[in-house]
């Protein structure tokens, strides 16, 4: 069975995150404000080479760029 | 003479060793017609091994209702409504953002999802504006 999310280059994890985000956004004011904090992710990473820290990048941005690159390849 | 005594002793022991165990059934092990539901989100568990009558889930393979003694299975869920018919006869509806439902042997059902809210928490106005923004 071919899933629509797979065909569009998303991972299952990403698909779940998108679905959860839409659900959070469609809530009433009170529960929405509480819930939307759960969707935030601010992980950053840097590659260390020969004792020096490389560029500090946001994981979310790099993931999004990677997925856009791989979309429709499979 | 000696062997006769042994035989008699054996005959005396025998009846007590062959008492059949009592076949009695108590209320505790009577077969339950309820299913134990666990509905868990990463940040909260809505149901925790609670006895319910029936659970209707939106599986990828189609809508399905789960009763007690359902065959064990793993189902991927579509984002959609999960309906839970409770012991009292009332039913509750939650909208889950997608996840997995696992029917385990022994009438246990575990549903995992990322987000799940009762219908009352959704706002019709917000939904309409979201829908309009998609067009």
Automatic annotation (TrEMBL), chain A:
GO terms for molecular function: proton-transporting ATP synthase activity, rotational mechanism. InterPro entries: ATP_synth_F1_esu_mt, ATP_synth_F1_esu_sf_mt. It comes from the Eukaryota. Pfam families: ATP-synt_Eps (PF04627). One of its GO terms (cellular component) is mitochondrial inner membrane. GO terms for biological process: proton motive force-driven mitochondrial ATP synthesis. Belongs to the eukaryotic ATPase epsilon family. This is Mitochondrial ATP synthase epsilon chain domain-containing protein. It comes from Lepraria neglecta. The lineage of its organism: Eukaryota, Fungi, Dikarya, Ascomycota, Pezizomycotina.
UniProtKB/TrEMBL annotation, chain B:
It is found in: Mitochondrion inner membrane. GO terms for cellular component: mitochondrial inner membrane; proton-transporting ATP synthase complex. One of its GO terms (molecular function) is proton-transporting ATP synthase activity, rotational mechanism. Pfam families: ATP-synt_DE_N (PF02823). InterPro entries: ATP_synth_F1_dsu/esu, ATP_synth_F1_dsu/esu_N, ATPsynth_dsu/esu_N. Keywords: ATP synthesis, CF(1), Hydrogen ion transport, Ion transport, Membrane, Mitochondrion, Mitochondrion inner membrane, Transit peptide, Transport. Gene3D superfamilies: F0F1 ATP synthase delta/epsilon subunit, N-terminal. It comes from the Eukaryota. The keyword Aminoacyl-tRNA synthetase does not apply. HAMAP family: ATP_synth_epsil_bac. Belongs to the ATPase epsilon chain family. This is ATP synthase subunit delta, mitochondrial.
């Amino acid at each position: 069975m071919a899933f629509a999310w797979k065909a569009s280059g998303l991972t299952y994890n990403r698909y779940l995150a998108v679905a959860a985000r839409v659900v959070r956004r469609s809530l009433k004011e009170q529960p929405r404000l509480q819930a939307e904090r759960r969707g935030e992710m601010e992980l950053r990473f840097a590659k260390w080479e020969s004792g020096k820290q490389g560029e500090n990048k946001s994981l979310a941005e790099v993931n999004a760029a990677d997925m856009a690159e791989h979309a429709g390849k499979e | 003479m000696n062997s006769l005594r042994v035989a008699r002793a054996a005959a005396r022991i025998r009846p007590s060793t062959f008492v059949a165990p009592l076949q009695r059934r108590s209320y505790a092990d009577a077969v339950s017609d309820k299913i134990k539901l666990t509905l868990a989100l990463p940040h909260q568990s809505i149901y925790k091994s609670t006895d319910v009558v029936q659970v209707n889930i939106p599986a990828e393979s189609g809508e399905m209702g789960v009763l007690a003694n359902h065959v064990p299975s793993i189902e991927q869920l579509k984002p959609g409504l999960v309906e839970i018919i409770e012991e009292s006869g009332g039913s509750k509806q939650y909208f889950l953002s997608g996840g997995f439902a696992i029917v385990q042997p022994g009438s246990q059902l575990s549903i995992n999802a990322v987000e799940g809210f009762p219908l009352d928490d959704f706002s019709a106005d917000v939904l309409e504006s979201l829908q309009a923004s998609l067009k």
